[in-house]
Amino acid sequence: MVSSHTVASSSRLSLHTSAVLNARLTSKQARHEKTSKVQARINHKLAFDAQREYAVLGHRPGQDHKWRDCDLANAIITDAMLYSDSSVPEIIRSPEGDIELPPHLNYGVAGKVKELLFEVLPPMSAQNGVTSFTGSVVSEVQEEMEREKAKANMFAKVVDLRNANSKGLAFENRRRCVQAFSLPGKQNDTGRPEVQAALLTMQIRGLWKHLLAFRKDIDNRRGLRHLVHERAKILKYLKRHDRDRYEAVLPRLGLDAASVEGELIV
User: Fold this and answer.
1) What is the helix, strand, coil percentage profile of the chain, to 5?
2) Backbone phi and psi for residue 21, each to the nearest 5 degrees, phi listed first
3) At how many degrees (to 10) do helices 243-253 and 193-213 cross?
4) How many CB atoms lie within 10 A of CB 17?
5) Are 192 and 182 in contact (CB under 8 A)?
6) Distances in Å between the alpha carbon of 212 and those of 32, 57, 81, 82, 205?
7) What is the CA radius of gyration of the chain?
8) pLDDT 10s digits, 132-191
9) pTM, entire model
10) Neighbour-count burial of 228, counting CB atoms closer than 10 A to its CB (0-12 exposed, 13-18 middle, 19+ buried)
11) How far, in Å, CA of 186 to CA of 178, rounded?
């Protein structure tokens, strides 16, 4: 009787222990499967985001040098460049005195306009009304030239691009894009496919930067999708009509061919 009771109790104990172990294993397996499914969703989202980023930026992750070294990146002015402490001002030297210009002038002040404002106009204003050169007139002209030089330095601070708002900076960057991607003999050819692709790429990058900070901005996300497909449409048109120009403009924009051709997920 004693031995049979012991056997029965030990069998019940072993059955009870195995049931608990099986329950624990089942619970661990369920947690493992749940973790695997969560990780699979995360990996799928990361792959989808990488594909979306590739269609927008035009290069794979880790290939940022393609953008940094392209002509478009060197043509536009970013906020970091505009407010950098390492920027060197331009000095206009003349016998009457030096005029210090900011590194980036406001839109519309460039080329012949800059030369007229800071090199031609100050001496002309100082000599205005002078008909004979006597000793007193020469000293008066020198004093007037000092005043004109001070005015020119103050005016240079006024037309500094750092005084412009975001629309002013965007206007200047559009002007630079058009100038950089137009033909040398036709500086303002806005209908050229290369110019349109450059302008769209600049808009796409600006909108992408905005969406990284405001991820729930659905309207601008739709706008980004439209711009990416519009850029692909223009570049595919260029590829059909002149493949050499198409292959030449892609590295200038910092784009891979695969980011333009095929299905684009944005």
Assistant:
1) 70, 5, 25
2) -65, -40
3) 30
4) 10
5) yes
6) 33, 13, 20, 22, 11
7) 34
8) 666 677 777 788 888 888 888 899 999 999 888 888 889 999 999 999 999 888 888 889
9) 0.71
10) buried
11) 10
